[in-house]
Amino acid sequence: MAKLKVLDEKTKSLQQHGTLHPHPSDVEDDLFRGSDFFDRRDLVQVRYEMLRRVRIDGRPTSEVAARFGISRPTYYKASADFEREGLAGLVPRKRGPREGHKLTEEAVVALEHALEQDPSLDSKALVELVRRRFGAQVHPRTVERALRRKKKRQ
Questions:
Q1: pLDDT of res. 88
Q2: In the chain, what percentage of residues exceed pLDDT 70?
Q3: Alpha-carbon span 88 to 78, nearest angstrom
Q4: HSE-up of 21 (CA within 13 Å, CB side)?
Q5: Rounded to two decimals, what is the model's pTM?
Q6: Within 10 Å of residue 111's Cβ, how many Cβ atoms?
Q7: How far apart are CA 75 and CA 54, in angstroms?
Q8: What is the Cα 128 distance to its own chain's centre?
Q9: How far, in Å, CA of 48 to CA of 63, rounded?
């Protein structure tokens, strides 16, 4: 019973850190069968062992990719990430833009300044200001969210 509780805590921790393997049952490598140490739910450990199988054990990439339930291009991406960043390169990253790409920090500052000058400006007027001054087409909700985020950070 205690072992099950520990595994549940590990699963929670892996989820919190974004390293829980989305398809652990796809990992069919012998290391991960019935082992207390090798955990197919730990995506970073799986990726590291996958790279080790090719680099140290000399196994063919196609064979290793199949045993670890991934495509060869995915293997090569993990290998390049590891080569460039070390172990940190094996930690998954969130996809998509990291921050607003239409509303720059400069545009948000200009919006705040415009609101200081005239607090009655609505989001449609602010959208027009961004279009005229910065040449960016943005939605009124984008402006509202950016101003709210900026206010939270202050």
A1: 94
A2: 91
A3: 11
A4: 20
A5: 0.61
A6: 23
A7: 10
A8: 33
A9: 16
